[in-house]
Amino acid sequence: MNKFLLGLLVVSALALYKLDIIFASSEPEFQRSSDSVLGDAMAGVERLCLSVAGGHSDSVDYYNCLDTAYAFEDICKQRILSQIPEKLTSPHAVSENQTRMQSCVIPGS
């Protein structure tokens, strides 16, 4: 009887482990790397520059905005990465740091 109960206990523990009910990871469910977050921010630069240029993609303002943004990209990225954790664990932190990056590469945006 004792072997049966011990076997049942082991099988139950394994089932709960497999179902991730016990021994769940302590890592947060939401997690993004800081580097990828800032990279995503740079993906939105063209849209922002288009807005700065009043919707004219063939204007000097648009191209000046893009030139400035890409010129500032590395320095802004280094500065922001030095101030934030390697992994961002909330959508708010992601949004906040994407906005920070865009504001840094496009001053006044």
Any overview of this molecule?
With 109 residues, the protein is mainly alpha-helical. It has a domain at 30-105. The chain is 66% helix and 4% strand. It has five helices and two strands; from the N terminus they run αβαααβα. The chain has a two-stranded antiparallel ribbon with strand order 1-2. The radius of gyration is 24 Å and the shape is rod-shaped. It starts with a helix and ends with a helix.
Radius of gyration: 24 Å
For the biggest β-sheet, the strand order reads: 1-2
> Structural class from helices and strands?
mainly alpha
What is the count of DSSP helices, taking H or I runs of 4+ residues? 5
Determine the oligomeric state from the structure: single chain
Model regions low in confidence, pLDDT < 50 over at least 5 residues: none
Mean of residue pLDDT values: 86
Biggest sheet, in brief? 2 strands, antiparallel
Number of strands: 2
N- to C-terminal separation?
Answer: 73 Å
Which series of helices and strands comes N to C? HEHHHEH
Taken as a percent bin, the fraction of beta residues is under 5%
Helix proportion range? 55-70%
**Rough shape?**
rod-shaped
